[in-house]
Write a structure and sequence with these properties.
Order of helices and strands: HEEEEEEEEEEEEEEEEEEEEHEHEHEEH
Protein name: Redoxin
Strand order of the largest sheet: 1-2-3-4-5-6-7-8
Mean pLDDT: 92
GO molecular function: oxidoreductase activity
Largest sheet: 8 strands, antiparallel, barrel
CATH topology of the largest domain: Lipocalin
Number of domains: 2
Pfam families: Redoxin
CATH class of the largest domain: Mainly Beta
Oligomer: single chain
Shape: globular
Structural class: alpha+beta
Low-confidence stretches: 21-35
CATH architecture of the largest domain: Beta Barrel
Length: 424
């Protein structure tokens, strides 16, 4: 009898314990769900893309609220702010797209003040994925108070110096508000490495940039008067570099690298427009126009910087007789995919000049098609043609707004040339 009563009591206790345990699990699950689906804290996040077990590419993520109360995600590279486009979430994962390039950032909350996820660069392949993590900084972004190793000024740089194909560059750096924080870039003869920022302290330099198509990291040690370092591009490429301070160093003139093979009485070319119709350039059908031909690709950040500037030129000089024609060489293989990428660029920036499809992203192909030039060595390359149909200048590469005064000087020279050609 006592045993029976004891068994009944034990059974009742077990039922109550199961209810308590089940309720506890539901509570924990609810809290976890609530935490996972609560938007991240607003402000600045120290973020990293992992490229191997010991190396990560740092960048700054910004979380803001839009007027409609939706979460806005931005990436900050020095003075450049890139707004990402929100896509449909996947369960507790936020998905954001880089609007100018075919890549996505997947973000999941990892506790109160941490995020995790990955970056997928579809321009390279569906399998190109770098792990992402971030820790919350706060509502404001503070300058580094670490001891300063000054790299202010211009640096004569050589990349890939251990190989048979070294190439020169010019490093231009500025310390921010007297702190260890550094902003600047490297100019090369085919374009700049855009907006870099980082720190220079205790004899070590770290600069990085993440724009949706490139994830760059430049690390170096300052030994005596020389920077010795490694340049990483994602997890697929790296090379050695060194630099010495030299405020007088200059790269080759970008107007001298690409040139007309020989004197031509006439030249023309034919490419497809975005509807698949043939567009043939010849001097006769653009008689009396100043023509600027832009050889570019939508996958190329330097080309994007140039395109933003060419939009300014189009708006300023179109009514005076400037005609801009872009010939696009795309990472996608099919004509349909190529036109889709170009149309996305046109829509994003409300461009109204002519866009044509050159083919795949190949400098060899571009050189064959622009047979009257010695060689296409860079996307972008621009050809300036006067009202008589004569080529007056070919500009190789593009050093954009990340280069500071170099960019401002280029704009001044370019607009002076266009105004002269329009006046002739």
């Amino acid at each position: 009898m006592r045993t029976t009563i004891f068994n009944i009591l034990l059974s009742q206790i077990a039922k109550k314990m199961r209810k308590i345990f089940t309720g506890l699990l539901l509570t924990i699950a609810t809290l976890n769900y609530s935490s996972a689906n609560t938007p991240p804290a607003l402000g600045y996040w120290h973020s990293e893309l992992s490229i191997n077990d010991s190396t990560s590419i740092p960048f700054t993520l910004i979380t803001e609220k839009k007027p409609n109360n939706e979460l806005c995600i931005k990436v900050k590279n020095a003075s450049e702010i890139i707004c990402l486009k929100a896509l449909e979430p996947k369960n507790d994962t936020l998905v954001y797209a880089f609007q100018d390039f075919n890549s996505k950032l997947y973000i999941t909350k990892d506790g109160k003040d941490a995020l995790k996820g990955y970056w997928q660069n579809l321009q390279r392949s569906e399998d190109y994925i770098l792990p992402f993590n971030a820790s919350y900084i706060g509502k404001t972004l503070e300058s580094s108070d670490a001891s300063i190793t000054s790299i202010e000024g211009k640096w004569k740089t050589v990349f890939n110096y251990t190989s048979t194909t070294p190439y020169p560059a010019l490093g231009v750096f500025n310390h921010m508000a007297g702190s260890a924080n550094v902003a600047g870039t490297f100019l090369t003869e085919t374009g700049d490495y855009r907006f870099l920022d980082g720190v220079s302290t205790e004899g070590k330099v770290q600069l990085s940039c993440f724009d949706g198509t490139h994830a760059f990291l430049f690390e170096a040690d300052l030994v005596a008067d020389t920077l010795w370092g490694t340049f990483y591009s994602g997890n697929h490429w790296k090379t050695k570099w060194y630099a010495v301070k030299d405020n007088s160093f200059q790269l080759a003139d970008p107007d001298s690298l690409t040139y007309v093979r020989k004197s031509l009485d006439t030249f023309d070319f034919t490419f497809k427009d975005l509807e698949g119709n043939d567009f043939t350039y010849s001097q006769s059908n653009l008689e009396g126009k100043v023509v600027l031909i832009q050889i570019m690709g939508t996958w190329c950040p330097n080309c994007l910087d140039e395109t933003k500037y060419y939009k300014e030129l189009q708006e300023k000089y179109k009514d005076q007789g400037l005609e801009i024609i872009a010939v696009c060489y795309e990472a996608s293989k099919s004509f349909e995919a190529q036109t889709k990428s170009v149309q996305r660029l046109i829509n994003n920036y409300e461009l109204d000049y002519t866009f044509l499809i050159g083919g795949n992203a190949s400098k060899t192909l571009a050189s064959e098609q622009f047979y009257f030039l010695n060689e296409i060595i860079s996307f972008p390359t621009s050809i300036y043609i006067n009202k008589k149909g004569e080529i007056v200048k070919v500009h190789t590469g593009f050093n954009g707004p990340g280069t500071g005064q170099v960019y401002l000087d280029y704009k001044k020279e370019t607009e002076a040339l266009i105004e002269q050609l329009l006046a002739d």
